[in-house]
Amino acid sequence: MVIDINGVSWDRGDKTILREIDWEVQEGEHWCLLGLNGSGKTTLLNMINGYIWPTAGQMAVLGKKFGEFDLRELRKSIGWVSTSLQQKLHGSETAFKIVLSGKFATIGLYDHADEADSQKAEALMRSLGCAALMQRTYDTLSQGERQRVLIARALMASPKLLILDEPCTGLDVFAREQLLYMISSVAEQEQAPTIIYVTHHVEEILPCFSKTLLIKDGTVFAASSTNDVLKTDTMSAFFGVPVRMELHDGRNWLTVKESLWK
Ligand SMILES: Nc1ncnc2c1ncn2[C@@H]1O[C@H](COP(=O)(O)OP(=O)(O)OP(=O)(O)O)[C@@H](O)[C@H]1O
Fold first, then answer.
1. Residue-wise pLDDT tens digits, 99-150
2. Which atom of ligand 1 is found nearest the CA of 35?
3. Cα of 249 to ligand 1 centre, how many Å?
4. How far does CA 130 lie from the centroid of its chain?
5. What CATH number labels 1-77+209-262?
6. Distance of CA 72 to CAs 76, 104, 134, 194, 224, Å?
7. What residues pair up with 199 in beta bridges, in sequence order?
8. Whose Cα sits closest to atom 9 in ligand 1?
9. In angstroms, what CA-CA distances link 166 with 8, 45, 200, 202?
10. Mutate which of 9, 14, 39 for ligand 1 pocket (most atoms within 8 A of beta carbon)
11. What is the structure's pLDDT at 74?
12. Of the chain's two ends, which shows fewer C-beta atoms within 10 Å, N or C?
């Protein structure tokens, strides 16, 4: 099992931020994690990456039970693309070196890369449609280009689990669709890692994310197949407002019912 979370809670002072979370992710599945601001998504990801520990319950990631192994080793098997990673990168590095540094899962370390590493970095950049950006410095890239570079970087270490934390934030609709297309092509590769795609936006859930976890106020609201979860009734209850869900070309689109404004 890739992620096995059993009755996990996380308290901070007198506040319970995550409450009795159960979540199982099996090999070969790709999940979407959907929740509003402050619902507990980042806290859950911090836990999966071993940056915080459950206050109660048990969990194992990639078969490793917390408390019984070296977390730094586990993190090498997890690629995590997030806004906080973007802030840690050196903007004056070339996109190519940033991708290469992903092999070591460290920032700015690429001195020991060999020819095979360079070829892999180039191939990943090509498959993510950003080979033309290799010699550009990171701070000259657009947000959509940066996300592709960061996904290529995460794939350099051949992770077993790839977490994409709101990758479409700040993208216009065309850049978003291009990035989503790239992500679905990564998901369809033979040796693809298990992908966890985190978002606030239902329309970003691609058909390759066949499972969806809804998280609300620190608890699991639903965890099932995407098409079962993204139903009008479930989503209206989840958001606490009447919404309408419609399926077009394998993607689910949400509209807020007009009655809300009357
Ligand atoms: N270290 C902490 N101490 C106290 N409260 C915390 C801590 N970390 C998170 N929280 C609170 O826990 C709740 C969940 O936060 P979290 O960042 O996990 O939400 P999120 O779903 O990732 O939100 P967003 O979509 O806005 O990033 C929030 O109310 C937040 O203020």
1. 998 887 655 555 567 888 999 999 999 999 999 999 999 999 999 999 999 9
2. 21
3. 34
4. 20
5. 3.40.50.300
6. 7, 12, 29, 19, 31
7. 34
8. 43
9. 23, 12, 8, 12
10. 39
11. 83
12. C
Domain-by-domain residue ranges, the chain?
1-77+209-262
- Per the CB < 8 A criterion, the answer to whether 90 and 138 are in contact is yes
Burial class (CB in 10 A: 0-12, 13-18, 19+), 262: exposed
Kindly report the length of the chain: 262
243-248 and 219-225 beta bridge pairing: unpaired
Please work out whether the CB of residue 82 comes within 6 Å of at least one atom of ligand 1: no
CA 151 – CA 124 distance, rounded (Å): 9
How far, in Å, is the centroid of ligand 1 from the Cα of 42? 7
Query: CA–CA separation, 59 vs 57, rounded Å?
Result: 7
Find the 44 Cα to ligand 1 centroid distance in Å: 9
Rg over CA atoms, the chain = 19
Which among 215, 230, 212, 224 is positioned nearest to 21, based on CA atoms? 215
Average pLDDT over residues 195-223: 96
Question: Counting beta carbons within 10 angstroms of the beta carbon of residue 85, is it exposed (0 to 12), middle (13 to 18) or buried (19 or more)?
Answer: middle
Nearest residue CA, atom 18 of ligand 1? Answer: 40
Residue nearest to atom 28 of ligand 1 (CA): 38
